[in-house]
């Protein structure tokens, strides 16, 4: 065992009277920030990336740092802002529709669907955009109401009411009632 190393393989804490380094902050606070980012972006790998970017940004500004509390505040803000950016990029990607795409499905894809499934897919195409998005994200994407609200930029209550109206409309279209 190297001199000064702890039995569990961890490095010893810095001297109480010495200045804290970026490495000390990383070792002591990284996992707390990763847990925060996981709660925000709901993906461990993305959360790790967000935290790594936050520490990279802190490294760039390390010479202008006032104190350790300022560093932790900087990191917290950077993790939250980085997570928001990730969520914005996700929402943009989900809402992206390639230009010049036809709304009609190919004959091959329709032939592979059951008649009931075809009726539901056809009914989805007749719904207003927001109802269609909410239902597709919920039932085909498997997202929760909160995730749909985040992805579409609407409230959870609006997600619930939009889904309810969309399901009613599909039921009427597929059932043939006006």
From TrEMBL:
Gene3D superfamilies in the cross-refs: 1.10.1740.10, Winged helix-like DNA-binding domain superfamily/Winged helix DNA-binding domain
InterPro entries: RNA_pol_sigma-70-like (IPR039425), RNA_pol_sigma-70_dom (IPR014284), RNA_pol_sigma-E_actinobac (IPR014325), RNA_pol_sigma70_r2 (IPR007627), RNA_pol_sigma70_r4_t2 (IPR013249), RNA_pol_sigma_r2 (IPR013325), RNA_pol_sigma_r3/r4-like (IPR013324), WH-like_DNA-bd_sf (IPR036388)
Domain RNA polymerase sigma-70 region, first and last residues per copy: 25-91
Domain RNA polymerase sigma factor 70 region 4 type: from-to ranges: 118-168
Alphabetical UniProt keywords: DNA-binding, Sigma factor, Transcription, Transcription regulation
Renumbered residue ranges of the record's region Disordered: 1-21
Family: Belongs to the sigma-70 factor family. ECF subfamily.
Protein name as annotated: SigE family RNA polymerase sigma factor
Natural source organism: Actinomycetospora atypica
């Amino acid at each position: 065992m190297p001199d000064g190393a702890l039995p569990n393989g961890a490095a010893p804490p810095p001297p109480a009277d010495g200045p804290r380094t970026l490495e000390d902050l990383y070792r002591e606070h990284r996992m707390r920030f990763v847990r925060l980012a996981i709660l925000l972006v709901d993906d461990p790998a993305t959360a790790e990336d967000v935290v790594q970017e936050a520490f990279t940004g802190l490294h760039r500004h390390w010479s202008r740092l006032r104190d350790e509390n300022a560093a932790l505040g900087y990191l917290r803000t950077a993790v939250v802002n980085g997570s928001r950016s990730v969520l914005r990029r996700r929402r943009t990607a989900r809402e992206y529709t390639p230009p010049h795409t036809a709304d009609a499905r190919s004959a091959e894809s329709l032939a592979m669907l059951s008649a009931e499934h075809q009726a539901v897919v056809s009914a989805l195409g007749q719904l207003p955009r927001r109802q269609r998005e909410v239902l597709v994200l919920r039932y085909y994407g498997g997202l929760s109401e909160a995730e749909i609200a985040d992805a579409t930029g609407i409230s959870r209550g609006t997600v619930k009411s939009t889904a309810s109206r969309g399901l009613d409309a599909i039921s009427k279209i597929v059932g043939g009632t006006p």
